[in-house]
Amino acid sequence: MKKNIKIIANYLPQYHEIPENNKWWGKGFTDWIAVKNATPLYEGHRQPRIPYNDFYYDLSEVKNIKWQASLAKKNGIYGFGIYHYWFSSDMQLLQKPAELILNNKDIDINFMFIWDNFSWKRTWSKLANGASYAPAFDDKNEWDKNGDGILAELKYGEQSEWKIHFEYLLQFFKDNRYIKIDNKPVFSFYQARNNFPVIEKMVDYWDSLAREAGFNGIMCLSKDILYPVKLERRMKYSPFQMTTPFLFLKYKLKSKMYLKKGTPGIWEYDEVWKDIIKEAKMSSKDTYLCGFVDYDDSPRRGKRARIVKGGNPQKFEYYMRELVNISLKQNKEFIFLMAWNEWGEGSYLEPDTEYKYGYLEAIKKITGEIDD
C-alpha cells in the first residue's frame, strides 16, 4: 500500500470588498486592484499576472468558493489553510469566505485557520509588531497621513476576550471538514513571537475549552522556530523564512541590502528551492514542511518587492516532488504550500494566462503517485 500525504495550500480570503479596505486603500480595493496595476520593473519581468479567462473572482459569492474547492480537490489539494484576521473581540476582518464555507456544507474542501496575528499599519508607522499589507498603495489615500499609521491594532485582551475568540472558532472546529489531528482541531499562529507569553497562556486556556467541547485539546502550530512551548508542532513557511543560522542570515542580509538600495530584491528560483530542500532534510520531527509555487510581491510593494525569478511548472514539479518524498520519509502527514491564491505575491496555484493549469497539473501528478 502506498503512503498518503495531505497538501494544505495557504488561502487568502481577501478578494471581496470591505469598508475598511475602501477607507484605507480606496473604493473597491482588493488584491485584484494591485494585480491589475502591476508593471514590469526590469526587462523580462513577468507583470502583470492575469488570471485564466480574466477570472477576477469575488469571494463574497459562494459559487466562486465552490469553484476553488472543486478545482483544488480534483488536483490533489487536501485543504486550505485560511488566513484568519482577528484583531480583537470588537474587530475581525475578511472572515466572510470562511463563514461561507462553514454555512455551505456542499463546499467539498478541508480547511484550518492560520492566524496572522499582527497589527496592520502604514509603512511610516513606528508600531513594532505590525505588518504593512499594501505599501505600494499607502500614498494613494490621504485620510490618515498625519496619524499614527495604525490601521487595525491587534489586542489579545484578557481571558474573557480569549473565550469570545474561541467560541467563534468552535463553530468551525465542530465542522467535519475542519482539519484535526488525534481529535484536536489544528490552529496555527503565524506570528508566535508577537507577545508569546500571552499566546502561551491563551493556548493553555483554549486547550481546556477544547476539551470541555469534546475534543482531545487543540493542536497549535507556529512558524516561529524559537517558540515551541505549548505549540506542539511547527509549520515552515516558504520561500524566504529560513531557520538554520547560515541560511537565515543569508536571506535576511540580502533583503536588507536591497531595501537600503531601494531596488527590488531578486532571487533565483532554483537557488531558493535548493535551500528549502536542504533545510527540509534537517528538519525536526515536529516540523511540517512547506514549499512554494512562485513569488513576486511587486504588485503590493512596488520597488520594495522581493522577487523569485526563473520559476515554471516543470521546475515546481521537480522540487515539490522532492519535498514531498522527504516529508514521506520523515513520516509527516501534512505538507504546507505557499499558496493557493496569493496573487499579490505572485504565489498561486490557480490558473493564469501564462501557464494555465500547469502548476495544478504538477500537484495532481505528484499526489497521484503517492495516494492510496
From TrEMBL:
InterPro entries tied to this protein: WbsX
Keyword annotations of the record: Transferase
Superkingdom of source: Bacteria
GO molecular function: transferase activity
Record's signal peptide: none
Protein name: Glycosyl transferase
Organism lineage string: Bacteria, Bacillati, Bacillota, Clostridia, Lachnospirales
